Amino acid sequence: MSSLYSRNKDLSSRSRKSLSDSPPSSPSPSTKTFRHDRTGSGRTDASSVEGSSDRLSRTSSYTRRENRLASLNKADDDSASKDYKKLYEDALTENEKLKSRLEDSKQELAKIRSQLDKVTQRQDRISERSSLVESEKKEKQALEKRVSDMEAEVKVLTELKSDNQRLKDENGALIRVISKLSK
Questions:
Q1: Residue 55: CB partners within 8 Å, gap ≥ 6?
Q2: CB 3 within 8 Å of CB 18
């Protein structure tokens, strides 16, 4: 916004300078006729006197115009240097504001990153816990299956022990019968 203002100011001061550098414009044809009509209104002998006074007024108006433009240019130069100083100060304050905003943004970014890291770690722990829970469930199921298999084996073993005991008893009885028969 401030650069647009300074650009417009530069253009206006350039146009004023170019006007002051150029000679005064010649009067338009309608102005000449108007002057001619005014000067020729019945005084033919005084027309030369009025023409010279017209030239004097033209040169004095030219001088007044030059003086006015010179004072405007000087005022513009003074105000331009003051404006440049003000623009510089404005730019500095704007830079400071932007720097502080940048620092605030950096701090906010760091804060958000730390929050993101915490959330990521929390999710990792939760996923580890869920994987641990799943592995614990699998282990528990495997252990339960193993226990049920062992219980089945224990039943078979108890049956085998009872069968073995029965067979021992029968074997002992048969040995007694054979020993009685052999006597």
A1: none
A2: no
Burial 110-122 (b: 16+ CB within 10 A, else e): eeeeeeeeeeeee
Q: How many CB atoms sit inside 10 A of residue 123's CB?
A: 10
* 15-52 pLDDT per residue, tens: 444 444 444 454 545 444 444 444 444 444 555 555 55
Do residues 10 and 73 touch, judged by C-beta distance below 8 A? no
Tokens for 77? 């130069």
Contacts of 9 by beta carbon, 8 Å cutoff, 6+ apart: 80, 83
Would you say 58 and 26 are in contact if contact means Cβ atoms under 8 Å apart? no
Q: Residue 13, Cβ neighbours under 10 Å: how many?
A: 16
